[in-house]
Amino acid sequence: MHITLVGISHKTAPVSVRERFAFAADELPEALPKFGGAAVLVSTCNRTEVYLTAHHAITPGTVIAMLRELKSDVEAPDEVFYHKAGLEAARHLFRVAAGIESMVLGESEILGQVRSAFSAATTANTHNALLSQLFHTAIRVGRKARSETDIGRHAVSLSSTATKLAERTVGDLSSRTVLVVSAGEAGKLTARSLAERGVTKLFVTSRTPARAKELARDLGGRQVPFSKLGATMADSDIVITSSAAPDFLIGKREVDQATASRNGRPLLLIDIAVPRDVDPAVRDNSKVELYNIDDLQALVEESRDARLQEVAKVEDIVEEGLERFRTWVRDRGVVPTVAELRERAEAARQSELERTFQKLGDLTPKQQRSIEAMSSALVKKLLHEPIDRLKSDDGERYVVPIRELFGLDEGQDPDTSPGE
């Protein structure tokens, strides 16, 4: 069984490209079965990765073509995608879950996103035992990395980075009016971060009014109807948006109208959504400063030094998890064969003992025990070498020859693969 990973991330493509391959949670039930087998799709603001398993190697081009098809044949060069297979794919996922592949080194949100991705595959029934073990191991690695190292202690989220950028751009936030466009998880984190920075005049809007109202109430802000987004922007100094909308929520026309009534006061827009919420064309307006998720990279780098020294410890945890996973995969393939081999040998030994005892006639209990001990020792010696080969690092390559030599598949369905 092969593991294949094909992905695109902030390391290989700008947001203008990777946003085209972002999947909202409600898209996964329909998308996952299209890959034609066991599949998990991890889609976050900075990455989209497909993990697949099959009995044959899967070509990256096949997966890339499916991603393009699912996203209405969007164009992107093959070079922005990366491909990993086998244990390298597993190692990459473990690094992702541990937070050392993130734009914000050590950020905590990714672990929940990995968990949600596997839950979506479980709901869509596109998982199997191998993917289950892979993702559960990744989640354990992520938890251990955060509990046994300081990789997350000094970490900042994209939401808090956005708040820091706002503070750096306009100064003290306590006297500023801020509009948060989103009441999802990223919106909640952003609003809380703003409240912690002293923002008292906080507007919250969303296409889901009930969620916006709840968040505004929790933080002492005010919920505004989404239909009044443009008018609220005109009254705001800062707009931070992080929705899951598939298209732009804020266009140049709305921004031009908002700035026209601000008497020359600048408007700061921070877009941390993927796909982006704000049309980049708004930069043509001289009264607007627009930052997107890629623009936050410089601020993120400032807080990396304290966490970089923890990376080596996290990588050790990743390698420990990889070794456990490798052992599980190996044993999964050979354990049934070892068990069947022992069962076949024991059945033959018992049969021969019975025939031998019948031929020899009356034997004392001591004589019977001696013969049984000798036969048991003989079987163990004969099986020692083939079982050792099966349990070696490359033991899977011996499974088929040993099953054929010892006739372990006789009477079984020929389409049934050992260990599956």
Task: Give me a quick take on this structure.
This protein has 420 residues and is an alpha/beta fold.
Describe the structure.
With 420 residues, this protein is α/β, with parallel strands linked by helices. The protein has three domains: 2-148, Beta Polymerase, domain 2 (2-Layer Sandwich); 158-294, NAD(P)-binding Rossmann-like Domain (Rossmann fold); 330-420, no CATH class. Helix content is 51%, strand content 12%. It is built from 15 helices and ten strands. The chain has helices spanning 15-18, 28-31, 60-70, 86-98, 109-124, 129-148, 158-170, 185-196, 209-218, 229-234, 252-260, 297-302, 305-360, 365-391, 399-405; strands spanning 2-9, 38-43, 47-54, 82-85, 177-181, 201-205, 222-223, 238-241, 267-271, 288-292. The strands form two sheets. A six-stranded parallel β-sheet has the order 7-6-5-8-9-10. Strand 8, helix 11 (252-260) and strand 9 (267-271) form a beta-alpha-beta unit. Helix 6 packs across helix 13 and helix 7 packs across helix 8.
Topology, pairings included?
Layout: E1 2-9, H1 15-18, H2 28-31, E2 38-43, E3 47-54, H3 60-70, E4 82-85, H4 86-98, H5 109-124, H6 129-148, H7 158-170, E5 177-181, H8 185-196, E6 201-205, H9 209-218, E7 222-223, H10 229-234, E8 238-241, H11 252-260, E9 267-271, E10 288-292, H12 297-302, H13 305-360, H14 365-391, H15 399-405
Parallel strand pairs: 5-6, 5-8, 6-7, 8-9, 9-10
Antiparallel strand pairs: 1-3, 1-4, 2-3
Helix pairs in contact: 4-6, 4-13, 5-6, 6-13, 7-8, 13-14
